[in-house]
From TrEMBL:
UniProt keywords, alphabetically: Membrane, Mitochondrion, Transmembrane, Transmembrane helix, Transport
Annotated transmembrane regions: 28-48, 93-113, 119-143, 163-184, 190-210, 308-329, 341-361, 368-385, 405-427
Membrane-topology annotation of the record: Multi-pass membrane protein
Family in the record: Belongs to the major facilitator superfamily. Folate-biopterin transporter (TC 2.A.71) family.
InterPro entries: BT1 (IPR039309), MFS_trans_sf (IPR036259)
Localization, UniProt: Membrane
Gene Ontology CC: membrane
UniProt-listed Pfam families: BT1
CDD domains assigned: MFS_FBT
Protein name as catalogued: Major facilitator superfamily associated domain-containing protein
């Protein structure tokens, strides 16, 4: 039974009412999105290092171009919430994003056969990221709509399931990249072939994830909707939460510089470097499952606090490899793998409650816009992180053949990584999370203690009234840097 089947069952939001069908489609699309987001990472970095021969600082600046389109996620979410295409708010945007993404990667694959300038590579990466962000933000909007109606015992379940599927897809993407780098003379060639296949799979599952054909939402005028959004964003809890998300995401990272050290000084093969990406996303997958099973009800402040403390200390572990302290006891590769796995697990534990908080704070009818704003803030932090990292490498003289002051960069980055501990109080307690209104009927006053709240409005992070599951994104997969 397809989306066009007149016998199909649909709920009030236009999504398939059959939870099993929705979850299957969500898992498939999340899996393919994970492949799409992870597969290009290693080939692009190897291409920049070995063929374009860029310096570490230059790589940081070029890769930041891939993060820039994520700042447009709120615009994409706003359009999908308010502007239907052929009577549908979700499916056409997802299809358009996926198709344009294939075109973008075909251009990059052709560039892989030549010797393009850094500007050309940066522009191509920008447009590739722009197209996948369009599809990604709309898929997130669909999942957030469902996530807000979860029962209390299931809160966070759909989002963590979605992230597990994305992480599984990322593991597969990393493995394909490893194999492809050995089999193909031009590594970007594998990207176009594999992404074409995964995009076709995604397109086949869009129909059961999105709007009912012909369904028109009650469209609000852009001026009215903008006013509602302004009043919504004026809420103190939301402003403090978004500020903390921005602070949490913008710390610099030494990992790109350390990648050069692994290749040039430790002589890591492409397989070993690619294995790090696979291990990282495998850790994401396992940690998302652990979070889904045991950690969903743990207060968000506690999870983020431990994440920051552990990673602040763990970041200094790279010094042991840099100065070859552990080389006689533990192989460098094994130590780096263990370090990256624990780092990734901490990143996921700190990331999941933040995206669930973003879903719970999104008002009905504007899920795409508000949730995308949270995600774009994290992307802005990633851009700041890349740019600051590039400046630090340049100032400290870290080059592809000179790592004299790499130790200083590691120490500074570890110290700055712990800085958000000073701002933990910006995150809300459960008691601070007032029920959110429906979009277009904004009532921002907090509910009085003991007051009855309609089930459709209950979106507190730990106490919701409804049923279903939960999923997130990324994002862009969380950057463990």
């Amino acid at each position: 039974m397809t989306a066009s089947d007149p016998g199909a069952s649909w709920d009030d939001d236009g999504a398939a009412a059959d939870p099993a069908r929705f979850r299957r489609s969500m898992c498939v699309i999340s899996f393919t999105m994970g492949v799409t987001l992870c597969l290009p990472v290693l080939p692009v970095k190897i291409f920049l290092m070995d063929r374009a021969r860029v310096q570490p600082a230059q790589m940081a600046f070029v890769l930041s171009a891939a993060y820039a389109p994520r700042l447009l996620k709120p615009l994409f979410g706003y359009c999908s919430d308010l502007v239907p295409i052929c009577g549908e708010h979700r499916r056409p945007y997802i299809v358009l994003g996926i198709v344009l993404n294939v075109v973008s990667w075909s251009v990059l694959a052709l560039l892989g056969y030549q010797s393009p300038s850094l500007a050309a590579i940066g522009v191509a990466l920008f447009f590739e990221a722009l197209t996948i962000c369009l599809a990604d933000v709309v898929v997130d909007g669909v999942i957030v709509e469902r996530a807000k109606r979860e029962a209390a015992r299931a809160a966070g379940g759909l989002q963590s399931t979605s992230w597990m599927c994305r992480s599984a897809g990322a593991v597969v993407g990393g493995l394909v990249a490893m194999v492809g780098l050995d089999l193909f003379e031009h590594p970007l060639t594998i990207i176009f072939v594999t992404l074409s296949t995964t995009s076709i799979v995604s397109l086949c599952n869009v129909s059961t994830l999105c709007d009912r054909p012909g369904q028109h939402r009650a469209a609000a005028r852009p001026s009215t909707s903008s006013g509602d959004l302004y009043r919504f964003w004026s809420n103190g809890v939301l402003l403090r939460s978004t500020l903390f998300v921005a602070i949490l995401s913008c710390h610099p990272s030494p990992h790109d510089a350390f990648l050069y050290f692994m290749r040039k000084k430790l002589h890591f093969s492409t397989d070993l470097v690619g294995g790090l990406e696979v291990a990282r996303h495998a850790a994401y997958f396992v940690t998302a499952g652990v979070f889904r099973t045991w950690l969903r009800q743990v207060p968000i402040r506690r999870l983020v606090q431990w994440k920051l403390v552990v990673q602040g200390v763990l970041g200094l572990g790279l010094l042991l490899v840099l100065f070859r302290v552990v080389s006689g006891v533990v192989p460098d590769a094994l130590f780096i793998y263990l370090d990256r796995i624990v780092w990734a697990a901490c990143s996921e534990i700190g990331f999941m409650p933040v995206v669930i908080l973003a879903a719970r704070l999104s008002p009905d009818g504007a899920e795409g816009t508000v949730y995308a704003t949270f995600m774009s803030l994290m992307a802005l932090g990633a851009i700041v992180s890349q740019q600051v990292s590039g400046v630090m490498m340049d100032l400290l003289g870290v080059r592809n053949d000179d790592f004299t002051f790499l130790w200083a960069m590691i120490v500074i980055c570890s110290a700055l990584h712990s800085l958000p501990l000073l701002f933990l109080r910006l995150l809300p307690d459960e008691a601070d999370l007032a029920p959110r209104p429906k979009y277009g009927s904004v009532q921002m006053e907090a509910a009085a203690p003991g007051a009855d709240v309609p089930d459709s409005s209950a979106v507190a992070i730990g106490r919701t009234t409804a049923l279903d599951d939960d999923g997130g994104l990324d994002i862009l997969l969380p950057d463990d840097d």
